[in-house]
Design goal:
301 residues, alpha/beta, nine-stranded mixed beta sheet, two-stranded antiparallel sheet, 11 helices, globular
Length: 301
Amino acid sequence: MERLLITNIQRFSTKDGPGIRTSVFFKGCPLKCMWCHNPETQSPFSELMYSRENCVLCGRCVYSCPNGAVSMAGDTIVTDREKCTMCGECTDVCYYNAREIAGKAYSPSEVFAVIDRDRAFYSESGGGATFSGGECMMYPDFLEEVMRLCKAQKIHAAIDTSGFAPWEAFQKVLPYTDLVLYDIKAFDTKKHEDLTGAGNELIWENLFKLSEEDVEIYLRLPLIEGCNADEDEVSAIAEKCAGLKISQVNLLPYHDMGKYKYDKLGRQYGGAQMAAPNEEKLENLKKIFEAHGFAKVKIGG
């Protein structure tokens, strides 16, 4: 099977499902959320990341680049990203981790080999593997193979998804899926399009179909003040989801912990004016879901 780009395999994670987990971040996403805290996973292609803070201006990257894409400009290093071919010569000679390539190619068996290292911790904590991104559902064949290996070793497997994928992709991986972490970013399709670059009709359709399957669902709502955190918006989401087979709701207040990555990628951060709802408002939003019959509603992951 073709190898795929993975940006990170994070061991001992406690934020992406129950217990201690290994989280696999696939590279590539069909959405472009303004606040995305993993911007290095958006493009399906390798990308260069440069940290000004770590750079000591030694110039090794300038002299090593075979394409003349790297040059010195005052107190920083400039890379012509159109000339850059991701050959890795500059990262190989950077001893201060100022330059790195986001995206390393793995086969399904190589991904599973990393997951399998911590099997003892999964059984003790009720954890397992979580497949995220980006959007892991862009790659159902690859995902199916890794999850099949997990299933054979009785490793709990979760997918963290926006739901923006063909239903056929879900059908392929559901036989090996124990848990779906499902994002709802807006009730209204126009608002969803403004925030993510795409409508949400398919997302709602897939959520209702998943609710009829033999799989556990955690509903996750990233909440941004002035965008999707008002009571009317959250009430509409809670009302639409009432009666669906959802075992947990996670209200995720906005954070900008991934903001620094945009500068590394040479991009502008779209969420600069965004803010999280305060604690009082989050508690009120939690009560809305509880009033619609949801027994387990948590603030945070």
